[in-house]
């Protein structure tokens, strides 16, 4: 009974793939194409649209707010990669001790902030970082004599965001690193220590190469996520970009341009620039990863 | 078939099973408890205080068997987002929406046909409301000559202060006529009793990140962001001078202002502690204080704002609310009736003041003796009369659709100047004023850039 | 013998570093829960649990559930909770089904256009979702799907990365032989999908369901753009409303947040293993 009627055989794959392909075509491909058209227009909501062609892009080039957004976002991305990831790796290494009791519980604890969701974390953060009565300033004041008026949410918006995302995501990245560390070939490590390599040398020559693929994946994920930061600062700063636009990120500016001002065209133009940046980072990252192996 | 079900059971772990169950259960729950079709008029407001205000009127309507009203209180960012996305798409939203000054600008930036509110100009003229209402109150709700909302208020501004602290120090506030007097007369209150190097209290509860307040004080001095023709006029000598003086309040060893946020428990705590002595107090702010800080009863008083120069204006205007009817409403006449009920009845005007401390924009009612009642919270002052006296004197406000943009750029400018001043240690008035001119020019060019870009609004010079 | 002692030392050192960090991570949660059980007047008087002003000891009697009862009885948060549960579970379910089926089809079945679709999907992985915000809004408007649950759910059930994950999982865990064997046994193609493939990609099913559930649960800005009717809003919006309107009532806000955390936390506890293995499978082996 191997060859069934061609009719039945040939329909089933379509039936299985159809739901996905249909929705994908309608809600991803079509909007993508329209984003191309929108970027060449100026709109006031979805009803009023006029073609302005490349005007949106020339405007972006000289829009100080846009550059501010790019600057803020890049700083945040750098901090995510160079502060958060090493910390995640460190945590993972701590947890990787063989036979460490409570590893599962620790993993759960560190991962838990992920569950809270951006809105709630933002709300919590806006209370914790408040001047005078916020938890953090209280602790810093009574513990280290820092001024109660330390203006986290006004002057030090970016550090506040970095700290908050650190709390939220370090567990997430740690999980990846932990899985990678646990997959490191123990026999290689043993061989290295028999050869007289100390812990640092073992780390450099066995561990790091072994976790490199996961590490590059995590770095890429982190970059992609950081470049698209939006809801967290938006909610923390009460639907604004903060004083002097310190909390303005690329996607926040996209949202404001499209949905507060109504210019869906300008928003799409920003979206394309973002897409280009992502592609650029991905290519660079792929090159770096390939060149090392 | 059985094999399939068995296999599916194998592919479903406990968690997945839970989600499946939740999906089915919630579908059933939604079917049994469907989204209620709420008949009647839908009205969105952003202020819980207004909800209390309108309640008696709504109860009266219910008693008279008139159309039911679903009144919802929605936070400002959410209200803005929902209203704008509905207006943009032209989809039905609430029938009536009460909005505030800053939200209004966004509703008016597009082509006049796309403004989501119904054009009420003719109706207002026909029903003779133009004469009855304080004219400057229509300002922010008018775009290109058409009126889109009924004004809720006048919102004159006075200076509220901690009378208990001031009088205990033996200071007489009637000596204060100008801002210079203010700084001089109240200076002794900025003592540093606990010797930590910082004054224990400041004179003014205001910060350079509050662009609304900055504009309020600038308006008092005659400074404006747009002129009558809608041209942007941020970069003027007067604006620079006013802004520079204000910046000196926030920076340097002689600063007199402190950051005391509104609408937060933390800020209220500071107010109770007397961290700052005086605050800009528009009529609606009296109500906020009254409701949120009952502990300060009998300790607060109001006085006319210190003028910029002797004989100058002693009030300003801050905030403003309007009630608009969405163009997509299917019940316009009923909505208009409701709007008039809520905004123009004698009973409401009375409630507006007695409950919410707000002075009605309807000039007819200004003679009412309720304004002369002594107010226990304000140490027995007849504060209502003080506000009404200032009501006709409030400065005019622009109706430019770029108002929000300009305010945002003003805020950016103020923050830039204040931080430059602190980081370079420049507290000299003239240097600050020069910097103000620079930043205001920058702000103005940014606004002008946006104005020129917009293909939907007629090009404004 | 020295090995054992140094192992112990290392373990102690690890715990010394881990314990404070773990506590640091948990402190905000603890603060959240205690704040939700405090009355407004107690909010500033003590950092965590309310204290008796005279003795300084914990005043257990001052703990209250009034914030929660207010949320459910007065402020109608029950409906927002139901909406969130519905949206998140329905989206998770539908997305998983569509991506699992699609991923399997792309991985193991032959049909016209397979190659083109696979390439498109892989390319689509790089599309940043924000790019699609504006045109999706436009599209929903044109389809008349604004202010509806359908408008929120449909665009979310065919994410490129979902089909990519399932394609990978199928390639790794579902060998062709098994499929052939099932065909020979007379099983229909659809039957093969449900009885052979799904059980083999079970970890990915669990992981992807949870990811999608969480993402939808925490979705905040987009529902406010799409929805208008107040009764349709999900929990994330309802809780942020508390922040906007009752800004001084922190207890209420914290209680709302606690309610919002509970379902995702519970699901995560149940789906922990699958989640982590699903997350890391692609990265570590691939």
Number of helices of chain A: 13
Structural class of chain C, please? Answer: mainly alpha
Tell me the number of strands of chain A.
2
> In percent, how helical is the residue content of chain C?
over 70%
- Output the helix-strand order of chain A: HEEHHHHHHHHHHHH
The biggest beta sheet of chain A reads: 2 strands, antiparallel
Helix-strand blueprint:
The complex is a heterotrimer of chains A (293), B (461) and C (286).
Chain A: H1 6-38, E1 41-44, E2 48-51, H2 55-61, H3 64-95, H4 103-111, H5 113-116, H6 118-128, H7 135-144, H8 157-182, H9 186-194, H10 199-227, H11 231-236, H12 250-260, H13 264-292
Antiparallel strand pairs in A: 1-2
Chain B: H1 2-11, H2 14-32, E1 41-45, H3 48-63, E2 69-73, H4 76-89, E3 96-100, H5 101-107, H6 121-126, H7 129-132, E4 142-143, E5 146-147, E6 150-151, E7 156-162, H8 163-168, H9 179-186, E8 202-205, H10 211-220, H11 237-250, E9 257-258, H12 265-273, E10 276-282, H13 283-292, E11 300-303, E12 316-317, E13 321-325, H14 332-344, H15 346-356, H16 383-390, H17 403-424, H18 429-453
Parallel strand pairs in B: 1-2, 1-3, 8-9, 8-10
Antiparallel strand pairs in B: 3-13, 4-5, 6-13, 7-10, 7-11, 7-12
Chain C: H1 2-36, H2 66-74, H3 77-108, H4 114-124, H5 129-142, H6 149-153, H7 160-173, H8 176-184, H9 189-200, H10 202-217, H11 221-226, H12 235-245, H13 250-285
Helix pairs in contact in C: 1-13, 2-13, 3-7, 3-10, 3-12, 8-9, 10-13, 12-13
